[in-house]
Amino acid sequence: MTYEAKQPVYLPVVDFLNLEFHLMDARPGVKPDAFVTELVQRWLAIEMSRLATRKNGRALRGFQWKGVFLPEGTHLRTSYLDSIEFAQVVGDRIRSDDGEYLTPSLFANRHTTGRNAWRFVWLRFPGDDYWIRADNCRGSAAKKLQGHVLSGCEVEASEPV
Fold first, then answer.
1. Rounded CA separation 53/21 (Å)
2. How far apart are CA 137 and CA 139, in angstroms?
3. What is the pLDDT of residues 88-98, one digit of tens each?
4. Which of 10, 69, 93, 104 has the most CB atoms within 10 Å of its CB?
5. E strand or H helix at 13, and its extent?
6. H helix or E strand, kind and range, residue 40
7. Average pLDDT over residues 107-111
8. φ, ψ for residue 8 (rounded to 5)?
9. Radius of gyration for the alpha carbons in the chain, expressed in angstroms and rounded
10. In angstroms, rounded to a whole number, what is the distance separating the alpha carbons of residues 1 and 7?
11. In the predicted model, is pLDDT for residue 150 greater than 70?
């Protein structure tokens, strides 16, 4: 067991107790300090990605999915029954959480067959707080030509805009 230095963070007692009781019901065995640590780490990862995007601009690398460009760092999510799968664009490929490189179709159909990835894959672009259905990004190609693009969706127009 390795030593990990810790710094106390003070919360109002009522908030701490509400968190502790909620964790007892929703996630038995999870201690409040471990939960808050995980929460802060996830928040920091998103905020650092958002800051890097603001400072350096959008990624130059990414995955081209037909008319939609997924910049490096884009997260993908799909679900089937009780299973939720995640993947991320790394370089110019999509890598699942277990390290396997996939196409969007293979990602959407890991536990079944015949699913259209555009309808079953959700995307969270670097620096965004929310998930957007892939089909909504694909549909924004026409809107880009009219000057109205959904935030985060990188669409390749067939004509110069």
1. 38
2. 5
3. 999 999 999 99
4. 104
5. helix 13-26
6. helix 32-56
7. 91
8. -70, 145
9. 19
10. 19
11. no
Q: Is the pLDDT of residue 159 over 70?
A: no
- Measured at the alpha carbon of residue 81, what is the angle toward residues 76 and 87, in degrees to the nearest 5? 15
The three-class DSSP label of residue 135 is helix
> For helices 32-56 and 13-26, what crossing angle results, to 10°?
100
Q: Has residue 144 got a pLDDT over 90? A: no
Instruction: Give CA torsion, residues 80, 85, 86, 89, to 10 deg.
Output: -80
DSSP character for 2? -
Tokens of 152: 């985060």
Residue 154 burial (C-beta neighbours within 10 Å; 0-12, 13-18, 19+) = buried
Two tokens at 62? Answer: 């990414």
* pLDDT score of 123: 95
Helix (H, G, I), strand (E, B) or coil at 62: strand
